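**Sequence with structure:**
===
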Amino acid sequence: MTKTLTTTALGLLAVLGLTGTAVADIKIGASIAATGPAAFLGDPEAKTLEMLVEELNAAGGINGEKVELVLYDDGGDPNKARTFATRLVEDDEVSAIIGGSTTGTTMSILSVAEDAEVPFISLAGAIDIIDPVKPYTFKTPHTDRMACQKIFEDIQKRGLTKVGMISGTDGFGASMQAQCKAVVADYGIEIVADETYDPKDADMTAQLTKIKNTEGVQALVNPGFGQGPSIVTRNYKQLALDLPFYQSHGVASDGFIALAGADAAEGVRLPGTALLVADLLADDDAQKPAVTAYKAAFEAKTGAAVSTFGGYANDAFLILADALRRAGSSEPGAIRDAIEATAGLAGTTGVYTFSATDHLGLDLTAFRMLEIKDGKWTLVE
């Protein structure tokens, strides 16, 4: 899928036959998993970018210049993502790239963007994307390490010290498993059971039974994303595991509740974004304007509920548009410098402040600890 968006006015002229080939003033590229196994991530991301470009151009563009979005669907395939990133740089000559719905596709795009010195804002979670800092690469989601820290912080508050972990062996699950092991001791917590599953597995009862039979286990943590965590949640319910249960931010959407079943997901906690609890935010919450504006626009445009993942794309576009305005130029180096100088920009995921040593721009307070109650997301006080 290749999608090019230009201004409403140009589209109207084309229909009337009053214009030839239109060329936008600013070209932005994207490679996203709009289809395939990671479509639950990429579909809302693609729709978000299309919506925002349309809105921006209708409002006059950036500093009077219109924006063209060149969007490719990589299907979550790292090889396709690399091909599309190369095409965006060499053929489409974009000024910046947004994308990488998964860590695998992000790493492919990253290598191309860094070589070409084109700013890239990733929509994936792994800490390796921005640690160590790479000159042209930024990202909007919290890192998997931060998710582990938020989970262990909550477990510590509950007075628990021994956890069982069941992790997906995909890139996201393996990375978060490693990050959780790296920080768990900081919270006085011990991992007493450590199981894994393949993302294609249809039943995780055997692994969960081992955890259930592990002496002293007090809580369950599931690093993973996609359908796997939903199956784990259903199996958890079937085995009547009476343990506090934590999922990752990789499943922070209404789709997870639907796949797992509201009954099975009851009481599950995870670190998520303000977007999932927009109606519960205080009026003075710094993120409330950005969250409510995006939620209202996306749901009106698509008829679908917002997701954390579409929010990542929203924030990436906000960051890029803000940088373009301040840079006063579509030259990649100027955009990169402006992104790195971003300070106090409120999005759906958090309030971003980048620096030469921080290309994530978020701290742990950007995460909200959420719990599923009666099939809905609630804030853990």
Observations:
- The chain is about 40% helix and 20% strand.
